[in-house]
């Protein structure tokens, strides 16, 4: 029996971000069955079906108006860079009504970047956890104090309402939804087709603007290089601090300032990345890879990959093994 594709409506309002507008069609459009059947249909809409301005210097002329939201299974609101949702926390009444109606009948509602301002203006984020681009966090809190904003994550899945951080985090959210709907294998294939990581560790904190650390002798860059060469060895926090010539407390403070991660988080990430590289490029057994990447046992490696990318080492190797050309 053929199952109809999941219907996605992308709702664009004035001053829509061009990249955000194209992200759902690009990412969801790559999700297919093993037989090549599309799993999603993606269509754009605007209020009244009228052209809307984009921030990229062109206008968007959709095929549909707000009536498209009446039958959509998922509604995605891309980010915006100007307009009432950003300036005074309001949105066109017709847009708010259409979004609330879609939510009330059970459609999944998503936002990319500052699209969260549109959802909040429609009243869909009150009392919910949500995120948006870190640079707009203070403005969001001022306009919508009833929303539990967390600007340090790439996306938040709060059941029927999902929000994501800036720009590329919209890709992360779309892949998360594909993974939720159809499993890791389908999502990983989509990531491959889009030439992006199937899963990014960490959060927006890694990308928030901060002063570039000066190239001083008390930086942690040399120690990070030293640690990368010893991923197969036990490396304790005190070993890192000693290499950098700092106390553990001072080293931890400098390290987090420069990387956005704790030393333990960073080291685990480096080991997982190295393990993934070995899975892609070698014929080593999973036990051997676990040892060479510093996890010690296959069980520990398996647990790390399951948490980080949602697949086992063997499944990752089958999906991402590079074949000679």
What does this structure look like?
- The structure is a single chain.
- The chain is of the alpha/beta class.
- It is 43% helix and 11% strand.
- It has 14 helices and 10 strands.
- It has helices at 18-28, 84-87, 93-104, 115-121, 137-143, 169-182, 184-194, 221-228, 237-244, 248-259, 263-281, 286-292, 298-309, 313-320; strands at residues 6-11, 40-45, 52-53, 59-60, 74-77, 108-111, 129-130, 148-149, 155-158, 161-164.
- It has a 6-stranded mixed beta sheet, sandwiched between helices.
- The longest helix is centred in the last third of the chain and has 19 residues, at 263-281.
- It is globular and about 60 Å long.
- The two termini are 37 Å apart.
- Residues 212-216 have low confidence and may be disordered.
Which key terms come to mind for this protein?
325 residues; alpha/beta; six-stranded mixed sheet; two-stranded antiparallel ribbon; 14 helices; globular
Q: Average pLDDT across residues?
A: 89
Indicate the proportion of strand residues: 5-15%
What's the alpha carbon Rg, rounded to whole Å? 22 Å
**What is the N-to-C succession of helices and strands?**
EHEEEEHHEHEHEEEHHHHHHHHH
Question: Can you count the helices?
Answer: 14
User: Segments where pLDDT lies below 50 for 5+ residues?
Assistant: 212-216
Question: For the terminal residues, how far apart are their CA atoms?
Answer: 37 Å
Number of strands: 10
Strand order in the largest sheet? 2-1-5-6-10-9
* Global morphology: globular
Q: State the major sheet.
A: 6 strands, mixed
- The chain-level structural class is alpha/beta
